[in-house]
Amino acid sequence: MCWRAAPKYSRAARPALCVAPEHVTNGLCDVFSKLVGCLNLVGTESHMENVSAPHCRVAVNYVEDINQFGQKQLDSKQPREDYKELLELVQLFIANRNALLSPKLLILSNIKTCKTQAKSQSKSAKTAIVMLNMGGPQKVDQVGDYLHRIMTDRDMIQLPVQSRLGPWIAKRRTEEVQKKYMEIGGGSPIYKWTDLQGTLLCKALDEKLPKSAPHKHYIGFRYVHPFTEEALEEMERDGVERAVIFSQYPQYSCATSGSSFNTIADYYKNRSIPFNIQFSVIDRWPTHPLLAQVFAERIKEKLANFAEHIRNSVLIMFTAHSLPLKAVSRGDTYPHEVAATVAATMTALNVPNPHRLVWQSKVGPLPWLEPYTDDAIKAYPKKGVKNMILVPIAFVNEHIETLHELDIEYCQDVAKKAGVQQIERAAAPNDHPTFIAAMADVVAKHMEHGPRLGQQFLTRCPHCTSGRCYQSKEFFKKLCRAEHESVTHKVQDASSV
Length: 497
Ligand SMILES: C=CC1=C(C)c2cc3[nH]c(cc4nc(cc5[nH]c(cc1n2)c(C)c5CCC(=O)O)C(CCC(=O)O)=C4C)c(C)c3C=C
Ligand SMILES: [Fe+2]
Fold this sequence. Notes:
With 497 residues, the chain is α/β, with parallel strands linked by helices. Helix content is 50%, strand content 10%.
């Protein structure tokens, strides 16, 4: 199809179009490529003129055909990305004729994306805030692909014969993980929270920094849609002047943040770097005072649930996703950055309570960072400590490990069996106003004072042997035009990954 030749729509994985009615395939491809060509007119004065242009009127005439084709795709249970895109485009160009599209198809075609796209076009974003995170499956049928992507990511995990073993483990794990997502409502809430945080963040930035407004957030997930590559594509299409790449992991790990940054480096391997955009990077922010403040406020909300006479002795148990000991020995900074967030939170909290940092969510048989959260919950009642609060400290929104592992497995099952008297779980930062203020302050200070790229980011782990990591850091120096001395420690042998 000729619309696959248009720049945005040239994803390699797109399957061939096979069941479209003749006139749809022949006529609409032309309309489609014209619509793509006119995308940046949406929201401008010429948009209305454009809407009455012949090719847009043709699109209106084809609405019924699009409906029929989309319906067939729906019935065959293989909704097609290119048709969703086409529907979005037609909606954008003939917004007042939305009613012509069937309601079912409108939902499929992701009206929300369409609306934000139209809105963003009309406010012509000047500054992009690219929010990097791992993401989570929004529906249970995405779990298999999600696990496959995690288990084949060599930044996340290094397995022998990974290209075979990774998919095998992912497949074996899928049913069990799907069950867990079903128990928390059918999917991960990471997208919902990230999108809300992004909207509120940009609103705050528009007020704080009118010179760089309008700010627009772009969500770049590592393992599910919207992918990091899609965020970059969209941002470039919007013609932004500045892009702040903002890791949503406050603490840096080569497995999480590092993997997202390497994905950006990979994306630009076969593309020219858009040097008309001024790029900069926020790779970590573990001790920001407002981040510590929001964790402290989340803890106070739960401390209030304990009887006054025991409140000061409740154990505050900070819990973070564990890391393989191999990664710790390589020099990954995540464990000490998590500990730094814990210390800053305890200072902000200013209470006499005892606290500990424990680790959860180990995957596979190899040794990971301990003590494990469930073991600690079991051990403390035997030592006379029977009241505790679990505080997820290494992720900024609710996810499967708070909603399932902590709330269902640990607070209900493990704690009950272990003889815990009262256990509470502090909420994640989510949309807490202090958290939005924290994000806005992190970004605003970064935009005003830099650095565009930190020395900490450029410095590799003492025992890193990943050629991929070396190349990625060299790329970011170029992308951010950061003229630091090379501190990325060349690998002797780039093949020794
Ligand atoms: C924020 C810290 C995290 C680190 C460090 C981390 C490392 C890490 N994770 C895996 C494997 C899996 N992680 C999975 C889910 C998952 N991981 C994190 C965070 C970190 N992971 C979060 C927030 C989530 C949940 C996302 C959600 O959907 O809500 C999964 C999938 C779930 C499962 O199978 O249990 C896997 C697999 C490895 C190997 C690793 C190594 C450094
Ligand atoms: Fe994980």
